[in-house]
């Protein structure tokens, strides 16, 4: 279960990277769907995987953004590895599932990339996002963090409500300062994990942003009353949290 949760974390992270800059408001934001494909690539094949991505994946994504099939896309490499975890992945987003499937069909027209064939594990996810905000900075996102945990199964909406009440003012402040490129809360459209799984996805324009974000989060928690902290942390299942950290290698959006 925990191994699969770790995989989901990556998916969520990607969803964040993929949301286009035009979608900058949390309230009444249109749903964004994200398809994520992850691979566990042996270290000896990492260079080949990167070369294959440049030659075969990036051109398809650029074309799909240009013709409006998708709104954004990204690729990433894990920065913190585990023995059974994924090492590489890619994702693309759209306001329609048909847009995602059009790209998937285009990718599958070609023969499997040699580095993908060499992968020891592969998994896909289909995510949805409706609560997100974009940073005010410019440039492509460089790093991402994903924090996934199970909301209380009997009231899964409580986690999003608690996040919005207790942390979202801080989130929007850090976005305005350009500390983060994107922050969003994802859930699964196709349930590969427990339906109550919720993942907070954050992307940063640089590594310094991760330090500033951590300081802002800690300062926010320090100002909360014991009752507020209990309400926030009590909205999730205890000890269900799993994180990922990754480096974004390519990205694009309309």
Label this structure with key terms.
single chain, 254 residues, alpha+beta, 8-stranded antiparallel beta barrel, globular
Explain what this protein looks like in three dimensions.
The chain is α+β, with helices and mostly antiparallel strands and 254 residues long. It is 38% helix and 28% strand. The chain is built from 8 helices and 8 strands; from the N terminus they run αβαββααββααββααβ.
Output mean pLDDT.
87
* Euclidean distance between termini CA atoms: 36 Å
Q: Compute the gyration radius: what is it?
A: 18 Å
The beta-strand count equals 8
Strand content: 25-35%
SS class: alpha+beta
Query: Percent helix among the residues?
Result: 25-40%
- Tell me the series of helices and strands, N- to C-terminal: HEHEEHHEEHHEEHHE
Q: Can you summarize the main beta sheet?
A: 8 strands, antiparallel, barrel
Number of helices: 8
Shape verdict: globular
List strands and helices in order, with pairings.
Elements: H1 2-18, E1 32-40, H2 46-66, E2 72-78, E3 88-94, H3 97-107, H4 114-117, E4 121-134, E5 143-150, H5 157-166, H6 168-176, E6 182-188, E7 197-204, H7 207-223, H8 226-233, E8 242-253
Antiparallel strand pairs: 1-3, 1-4, 2-3, 2-8, 4-6, 5-7, 5-8, 6-7
Short account of what is shown:
The protein is 38% helix and 28% strand. By secondary structure, it is an alpha+beta fold.
